Every structure is written in C-alpha cells, then in structure tokens.
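To the team - biotin complex, inputs and output below.
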Amino acid sequence: MNKNYLQQILNKIKIPDYKYFKETDSTSTQAIKWASDGAREYSLVIADSQSAGRGRNKRTWITTPGASIAVSIILYPTTQESIKLGLFSLLGGLALSNALITQYNIPSQVKWPNDVLIDNKKTAGVLAEAIWQGNKLKGLVLGIGINVLPPSVPRPDVLLFPSTCIQSHTEVPISLEELLGHLLHAIITLRKSLLTPEFIQNYESKLAYKSEIISLDIGDHHTVTGHLLGINRNGEIILREQSGKEQSFPIGDIKLRPQ
Ligand code: BTN
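Output:
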C-alpha cells in the first residue's frame, strides 16, 4: 500500500492510530499484543504480507503483497455487545458486503458466519478473536482478509471453496487504500445497529443459501443437514432438520450445498 495515501484516508475516518507492516507474522497476532498494551479502540494493524496469517479453524491465510488487504481492527465491546460476541464476525462480512454495493455497485452475499461471496465465490474472510484476561473480556480483534486484485486469488488446488477477487467484478480500478477506508467506515456505521433487529434482517437479506438445504460441519466429525432458516439475535445459524426440529448453532462451517 501507499503509506501517504493510506494515512490521508485513515485521517478522514478518524482512525486513532495504526501500524503498517510490509511484512509481519499475522496482523491479528500483532493487534492482540497491542490491545493488551492499551491500544485505543479502532486502532489498526495492516500488512502487505503475512508469514503466519491465520483463518478460522486453524487454516492458514495467504496475503499477496499489492493485491490483498490484511487488516486487524481493535475493538472494545460494550457490556451489552459482549453478551453477543458472535455478532462481530457477522459485522465484518456484512460491512464489506455493504461497502461493495454502495461504493462499487458489486452485489455480494455473506456466507455464515464469516465469508463474503461474489458470484458464489469467496472474496473475503473474517476472523474475530476475543482477548480474555481470566474470565474478563479485554477486547476483540476483528481480522479481515480480502482478495482485491487477481494475483490474490489462491490456486484452485489449495482451496476448500471456490475463490474470486473484487476487481474481477468491476471495470473500475480498485485502490486498496480506498477500499480499506470504505470498509472501515462501513464497520463503524454498522456497529451502531449491531444489537438491533435491523442488523439481523440486513444480514439475512444477504445470507447465502437461505431457504436451501445445507450441511453444517459442527466439529468433532459431526454434520447436521437441514433447511437454512436464518440467524437468531445472537448471530447463530438456525436450521430446520428433516424431522421438523429447529436448532441453532453458534459455530460451524457450511460445507456443501446439496443440489
Ligand atoms: C477465514 O476465512 O478463515 C478468515 C480469514 C481471516 C484472515 C485475516 S487477514 C488479516 C487477519 N490476520 C490474520 O492472521 N488473519 C486475519
């Protein structure tokens, strides 16, 4: 990224502080350390490249210099928000999806809980990590990785899910710095509605596979299959199983979409 341009953009949206690395292990690892040292809310860690970028479920995450965004945002959830921490990964994905349509006219969907899809292909992932001191919540780091330009799209043989990048869906050249600014602005705005029914409705209106039959990997080699009904106010996914029973799940990976 261009540091001067980045600085200008971050000043406009009143980001209190940021660290920018050409290369680091993981922006989220750095942000967790910084939060523990008292970083202010909405401080950012940004990197062009990560040697140990991580995704959900201990997967690795590749960041391509000049073509991807890797950012970790330090947040201090309020007491009310901290009861519903699961909403924070939804916040990151939905904010990006909102920014894509309003700024670039690119429609996208959110794949629960943390992916953003364009044309059914993944373009971004969110990793929300809570920081605990004993049983007290110290803060939360929202790590977001976005494939922006074509070199950021991983080779198909290393992928669990088809992948794309934002630039492949518009003729307008995308600037990494501007896109980051739009994303941050969308997160700050959307967080104001995090605990409201509108947030859930907004998320559900973009939810991939809604009303379809999906399989959800809930860990320990357990999979549940059912109709995807939506999400509840804690951000948990709600499935109706074949027996008619409705169940919600706080974590899981949508593995496949039976035809
Ligand atoms: C996923 O799809 O599994 C989530 C991917 C999250 C990747 C981002 S890149 C910035 C931040 N730093 C990390 O090490 N991970 C997140």
